[in-house]
Amino acid sequence: MNRIGTRFCMVVGGFALLFSAIILYRTWAASKRQVEEMTATQANIALAFDLAIRQYVKESIRPEMEKRIGPEEFVLGAMSTSYAARKIVDKVREQFPNYRLRFPSENPRNPINAAAPEEVEILNHFRANPDLDRWNGRLTIDGVDYFAEADVMRVDESCLRCHGDPADAPDALVQRYGETGGFHYKVGDLVGMDLVAIPMDQVHATVASQARANVVTAGAWLVVLFSAVLGAFTLVVGRRLSHITRYFQAAADDEGEPLSPMPETGRDEITLIARSYNRLAARLRHLQASLEDQVEHRTEQLSVANEHLRRERRLLKQSLRMHDRERQVIAYEIHDGLAQQLVGADMAFQLAGQSLGGSSEQENANYGTGMELLRRCLTETRRLINGVRPPLLDEEGIVAAVKNLLTEELDGGPELEFRHSAKIERLEPVLENAVYRIVQESVTNARQHSGGDRVCVTLSGDEEHLHLEVQDWGVGFDTKKKKGKAMGLRGIKKRAKLLGGKAKIESEPGRGTRVVVDLPLVPPEDDSEDSDF
Fold it and tell me: Which domain range does residue 185 map to?
């Protein structure tokens, strides 16, 4: 819950900070613009007052003075517009010492009105633009940034008396300022300008002060807003979500227990979540009950099927053991009956042959033919005994029986190689017989169909498993196309499966064949009933 509240407050706080930053920036920009406009207005008003003073002296005071003292006389303090304006401006400058109120000129009568380099640039700007009478903008003088308002002074006919030829000027001007400064101008020449410059550091300080105040106020309001939002979120959403979260955690911890209904309070989206959860819990309870019934029914079916399979497997293994027992009995009967009689007949014929020393050649030839037939019968009898169930398998085990099988198969075929692990001991009779038959079938297939010159039989195992491999390097075959046709290979797989193991046939055309069989040495539990077979 704390994480959701924190994230929610972070999102709200981010938007609030963004909006506050935008509002503060717009407020700062508006304040700056407003203060700059007020500064420009102040400069404009100051310049307007200056020009009004000049205009009043020129149009009102000077004509009245000429009427009183005559046109040839000149009272500097009352009749000079620049002098009167400067005197008044000096009084104003005492109250605003940082303001720059000047009458700069490149050829002034009063040296204090000499134009600074920055002011000369403005004069040159007026000179380059004869139609321009007013200029305002930013001006830096002695490292101080000002907002300046300037009005140009150009010479007209009425100005020539005081600024033209010194010979035509009033004596009072010449005596006070000499014949150089402020003279020798013609109509249209630029005499100087009236300049009002207000320092911008005060403007910047005012804007910065307002900005700091706005930031502090906004910060305080943001803190109040965050607190209010967090409190409202906790009150309206947080506590209810915490309750739902605890309920979900408790439901998740109760493994196997059915989901109990959740209390529903209110009519908002959180209530909808609780109501949806209750519906889902009801469906899950119903599905769980239905699933348990299905599982129970399916378990009964599987139990019956498994019992049926175990029964069939026991019957098949019993049949296999009985079949092996019958083959063993037949082998013993042939060995103890027919084979012994043939051996006795062979010995009798040998004794009888000793008395045929003086017989005719025909009798001797007939005797030899009979002996040959008798010995062939004896060999075939022994082969039948090994085919039915080799006695060596019962007497010495699977390793000796496989060695004997491969030795008998040496004539007229590929080279047979047998590799085995020394740890292999006597196995269960049915398992030994299955391994023997698998090796016999695999070697027979390799001799008849592989066309290779080598067959390798590998037998290994541990305390729990037996591993058999029969590999040749002959022509091989496509296992997909052989399905349904290779009865011997299918018999190998079925025999291995019946004993709880598995057999795999690997072959490709031109790359030989490999028969891999894995059999368990520990009999399955369902074989305990018939382990005495």
Answer: 2-210
